Amino acid sequence: MNRRDLLVASAAGLALGSYPLRASAADKPRRRVLMFTRSAGFQHSVITRKGEEFGHAERIFNDLAREHNIEAVITKDGKVFDSDLDQFDGFFFYTTGDLTKPSGDKNPPMSADGKKRFLEAIAKGKGFVGSHCASDTFHSEGPARENQATPDPYIAMLGGEFVSHGRQQSATQKVAGGSFPGLAELGDAFTVEEEWYALKNFAPDMHVLLVMETKGMEGRDYARPPFPCTWARKHGEGRVFYTSMGHREDVWTNPKFQAVLMGGMHWALGDADADVTPNFKEVTPEATTIS
Known about the structure:
alpha/beta
């Protein structure tokens, strides 16, 4: 790995924010999280670098990590997954495409064995957080606008898969899991301008946290019943959190997004507790309907 391609964020103390952590969290060693931002497909502007400078989202996550007692290692080098993964408490993906394939961004791909080892690490107890295009990664085979019976193993771990998106627009997210870390101060619903993903291949054992309210949205991509856009689930012994937010630069500086992201991060790392009893069928009963 290039020496300049790693960023270690030192901790400046634990910022509790609006979400409660376990009482013992501040007494625990600093958590170490790998932020992986390789683009084997479309490269989003928020993780595009100018020379050796980190991208917008990478810099902001560095700052958030420092505030939340997390040591961040940030890289686009897929060879990291052939290293000792026990050095990380969790993983944060902002990625696209088949990460085991070469791509235009010229960064080394993840090996097939690295992908296997990564997924095994989650199943054995590591935390995982995905933002936005993490669901546009390792696609399942078959027509894009159909739910697949057997999703790619990565998609099965994540709990959902990108279908498409329309034009950027303001839309409402209904809060379905208000007791989850980071959601307590968001009220019953909130509106954000974003590039909203239409999603499929939902894991039925997910705990839906935010629901995409499609009524009033413009474009064919959203001509469907409400569906999950942020969720948490257990994958073996691991904790998995995903939010479809994170495309726009101003979303990354939005305190609501930051609260959602870092609440999910602390839960995934095991430093915050929440009831994640599956509620997919109750909260979004028609989510599998795709126009």
